[in-house]
Write a structure and sequence with these properties.
With about 450 residues, the chain is α/β, with parallel strands linked by helices. It contains 22 helices and ten strands. Strand 1 and strand 2 form a beta hairpin. The termini are far apart.
Length: about 450
Amino acid sequence: MIDTTQTEIELDHESRRLSVTKPEERFDVQGDMSDDERVEKAMVNFAKDFGRVAATYMEACIHCGACAHACPFYEVSGNPRHTPIWKLEPFKQAYKREAGPLAFLYKTLNFKPKVTVDELKEWQELLYDTCTMCGRCTLICPMSIDIATLVGTARHAMFHAGLVPHELYTVTEKAQKEGSPLGATPSVFEDRIEWMGDEHEVEMNVNEDQADVLVLMSSIEIQKYPESMAATAKILNHMGKSWTFRTDGYEATNFGMLSGNTGWQRDMSMKVISAAEKIGAKLVILPECGHAYQALRWQGANMYGKPLPFKVQHISEFLADAVDSGALKLKTVNKSVAFHDPCQVSRRGGATPAPRKVLEALGLDLKEAESGGNLNFCCGGGGGVITIHRADSLRHGIMANKFRQLDATGAEMMVTSCSNCRQNFDESGEELNWGKDMNSLLELVAENLVEEGKR
């Protein structure tokens, strides 16, 4: 296992491969369990999540290797261990031994040996550090194996076994206890709202008893990009919407999902769902956050146990609909732009056209990057990876490739619709001396609203 906090790693900018020396092991554990107990818990929970679909995936792999070059981590490292399907090997071993049609033979004849704690040490890194669950491997797989979802399922077992990277576990635990992974508690949120309202001279609706629209924010936006709160308010007020922030349900991020704790994932989702029900919201608008879209739009009903009683939209979808309906008219921005698609919103979420409609309405000349749109190259920081320090060098290597793709477009402006991606661009850009800024689609819209009767 490579511990990038203790290892000398250099990126060859020609080959885009990592040169690694002096590897040192780092293995993070939670709880007081023996190695045997951890293995047992991991295997039991691997097997518990097996269903017909997962079983079909386990049997379908033809070992073609197509997923390897779809993976940004493999593309940077060139290490066969980073091939997406290899990240599921303990999952496959557990399936073959415990749940497959020939499990008795596999176990009796030891065709698939029992997973060891040493293997779990290796797979902690592979499941958490070298996978953002971006779904590019899923899209490219000729057998349609949803590797990204299987990695998420494997993380459930790792959490039960107390085998989560400590940074990711710490922020998840903080979110469960305090309501926010980054310290954006209700009082901090209210202070930020007041600050942004005063600074931008915009009316901020907070804790309304009834509203058609509940607006969520992510911790990253509250703490690092608070202008997004003012931008959202400005747009909704401009459109005359009945809307509100709620201090009892405002946090869009869901680290329960990223870490693999479905119980905590449910708790975090239910705070938002309950707040929306309380005010009779017809629509919940998600902020510029990729995994928040997955957590509520696509997994929220599973946590709730029935269909959600309101519509869920990512902010880019909301803006696209407003542009389409004529409810939102925008000034023309005479610039060329390259757009970074957030994986969980575009490829995994199906909202790829939405930001492009908004960019077109702004009169921007879109320069599509290599492998853009649904095939977009991941920024490397999603899925909780940006929290894990030993993954920093690999993540920076991925961003070097991303910078190269965006630079090749020759665009004057860089834009995205995910604050986590934006944070990764900012941090990696400083580390790698990129020299460019990643801009927010939401904030760009708020800056270019057309007042009635003007253009």
